[in-house]
Structures are given as C-alpha cells and as structure tokens.
Write a structure and sequence with these properties.
Length: about 425
C-alpha cells in the first residue's frame, strides 16, 4: 500500500513539474511585462542577463570542438562524411538564397521605405571590404590555441576540429583512445549545458526585460512600417518556406518541430546570437528530435557559421528599403545583383567579426546605395537582432534533421 501511494505521489509530482518550454515562456512573458512597467529602471537586473550570456558563451568553444570530434569520429566512413558535408553546403546555399529573395520580395510588395519622413543620417561607417581568398585562408588557424580564446574565431576551431578528427580516423585502432576521450569530454560538456540551460528562464526574463526597458516603444515609431514588414517576412519565411521543407524533407509536423526547438529558438531571440543558442539546439535535436549525436555534432556548428537565413533575409529587405527611402527605383538587373552579392557575402564572410556589417556594406555598395543606410538601421539593430537570429537556428536544425532522416533511410534499405 505504501509503495502504491509513493508511486502515485511521484506521478503527481511529475505532472506538476513545469517543462523547460513552459518555464522559458513564462520568463519571456514576465520579462516583457517588467520592461513595460519599469522602463529604464529595470536595467538594475541587467547583470542577471549578462551573467547568463557569459555562461552560454563559456560553453561554446569546448562544446563545439569536443562535439565535432566526437561526431566525426563516430562516422567511420570518410566518404559518408564527405557526402553529408557536400549536401549540407548545397542546402545552406539554397536556403540562404531563398531567404534573401523573400526579403526582397516583401520589400518590393509592401514598400516600407515609401510614404515616411525618414532621411539618412551622416555616415559614421568604416569602409569595410573582404577578399574571398583571404577569407578562405583565415579559416585555417595559425595558432589554434589563440583561436580558442575568441568566439569570433569559431570557424578556425571548426576547421582544426574537422582536420583533427579525420586524422584520428586515419590512425585506425590507435586513434580509438583519443576518440573515446573526446566522447567523454563531449558528454561532460552536455552535462554542463544541462545545468546552464536550467537557468534559462531567469536569463531570458532579464534579457528581454532590459531590451524592452531600454528601448521602449519610442525608438520603434520612426521605423514602425519597416519593423512590421520585416517581422511579417521573417514569419512567412519560417512558417511557410522552412515549414514546407520540414514537412516534405523531414516528414514532420512543422509546429511540433518548432515546439521541440523552443528552447534554442527563444535563446537565439533574446541573445541575438546563433552561437549562444548552439548548445541548446544540439541538446534539443538529440533529445527531442532524436537526431544522432554524430550528425548533430558535425552539421550544427558548421551551419551556425555558414547558414544565416534570418541575416540573409535582412540584407535583402534593407537594400530595398534604403533604395526606397532615397527615392531610387532599382531595376530587375540591379536586384539580381543584390541577391547574388548578398549570397556571396553570406558565405564568404562566415566567421568574420561584425560579419553583418561587412555583408550589408557589400550589398549596398554593389548597386551604389549609400552606406549611410547602415547608420539609419543602427538605432533599431538590437531590436531586430532576435527576429534576425532565430531563423538561423530553425534552418540549420531542419537541414540537420533532413540529413539524419536520409541516413536512417539508407540503413533501412
């Protein structure tokens, strides 16, 4: 009888225990309410959000390195590894192109830069440029230990991790000891991720409260039409385009997919960082979406650096918006040039610090639009950041899930 009562009590406790999804949702809503009520006074809780961000960033480099090594060394067939990498790269390029095109189409249809009283402020923007050859060379680290000291050098760490992992595989049985060691390191990092994610509701609450409290509604009014069109475009891209891909390629209900990734989506939104959301995304893909560690650990870190759907959409819509503000009617040829320049920029600037600035500068310059447009957007950049970031996470996760499903189908045949 006592055992039966204990079992019932345990079941009741489980039912009463809130899921992380619910806790983060409550934290997000509470943050919005606190920000609206207290305004700038809420900045007193900013250190809570800053601490949470630091803990997330602390995870990134050791988690990425150990996860990639563990993932690749558990794919013993190098040909399979190469095929998966090529497929992922092609999908990254296609999804980025679709995102840019979506932004430009919404800009052309809804014309957010027409009918307002906006003027371009004086430019305070550096003349930034990049060389594709230099970018490729910069991916290879001169000093791997130095690369580990900055999250801006993640692509260099990924490059070393992939090369290191392939060498472990080439060592055969002798490499097993090293492979097993990094399997254990990855598990330790996952455990650390669990502990830090447990603090997410508090971190999310503090971060969203300080954003709302600092900017309020007054900062949004001059660019309200652009903000509305941009957010509608983002939602269309995620729900319709990414959702269709998830339904067809992943054979899964898109809304269940997004719910299973809610932790990483909300993390990307409030932190404005795909890298900060990476540990959470890896965990959710493995636990909720049942994607094998080997695939998740290989594809997600690379996608985080190369596949930035939300940022790409932003490039397209901002270029059209700036042209409309200054009264320039872009031809079809010019808009095609913007699309291809933004696409090359998105791929070529992967891993470069302030990549969004470089990308936007390239995109505007390719058709002679003034760089002062970047200054115009700077005032609302942090507000746009969340919506610009979370599609990166959902896009990378969808591609990872699709590749995992393909591998499962191969095993069944």
């Amino acid at each position: 009888m006592d055992n039966h009562e204990n079992t019932q009590m345990n079941e009741t406790k489980k039912r009463k225990k809130l899921s992380l999804f619910t806790k983060i949702l409550i934290g997000f809503a509470l943050g919005v309410i606190l920000g609206l009520i207290f305004g700038e006074k809420i900045m007193v809780i900013k250190p809570v959000g800053d601490l949470f961000m630091k803990l997330l960033k602390m995870l990134i480099m050791p988690l990425v390195f150990s996860a990639i090594v563990s993932g690749i060394t558990n794919i013993p067939d190098i040909k399979q590894l190469l095929n998966m990498g090529i497929k992922a790269f092609i999908l990254f390029v296609v999804s980025t192109g679709l995102a840019i095109a979506t932004g430009m189409i919404f800009g052309n249809i809804f014309k957010p830069g027409i009918g307002g009283t906006l003027t371009l402020p004086p430019a305070e923007v550096e003349d930034v440029s990049f060389s594709l050859v230099d970018t490729i060379l910069n991916v290879v680290p001169e000093n791997v230990f130095e690369s580990f000291t900055s999250n801006n050098m993640m692509l260099q760490v990924i490059c070393f991790a992939i090369f290191f992992s392939i060498c472990i595989l080439l060592c055969g049985e002798e490499g097993k000891i090293v492979s097993n060691f990094f399997d254990k390191v990855a598990k330790v990092m996952y455990r650390m991720t669990d502990l830090i994610i447990g603090l997410a509701p508090f971190g999310v609450c503090a971060l969203i409260a300080t954003i709302i409290g600092q900017y309020g509604l007054t900062a949004l009014l001059p660019l309200m039409k652009f903000l509305i069109v941009f957010h509608v475009a983002i939602l269309f891209f995620v729900i319709v385009i990414q959702g269709s891909f998830i339904a067809v390629a992943c054979k899964m209900n898109p809304f269940k997919f997004f719910k299973d990734l809610f932790g990483s989506i909300s993390m990307a939104y409030v932190t404005d960082s795909s890298a900060a959301a990476l540990p959470v995304a890896i965990k959710e893909l493995q636990l909720n979406l049942k994607v094998p560690e080997s695939i998740t650990n290989f594809i997600m870190p690379i996608g985080t650096n190369m596949n930035k759907n939300g940022s790409a959409l932003y490039q397209g819509i901002v270029a059209i918006f700036i042209a409309q503000v200054i009264g320039v009617d872009l031809s079809f040829t010019q808009q095609i040039l913007i699309l291809f320049t933004a696409l090359l920029g998105a791929i070529g600037t992967a891993g470069i610090p302030s990549a969004s600035l470089v990308m936007l500068s390239m995109t505007l310059s390719c058709v002679g639009l003034p760089l002062e447009g970047i200054t115009l957007m700077a005032g609302i950049d942090r507000i746009l950041g969340g919506a610009r970031t979370f599609p990166n996470v959902t896009g990378n996760a969808a591609i990872t899930k699709m590749l995992a499903r393909q591998e499962e189908d191969k095993l069944k045949q």
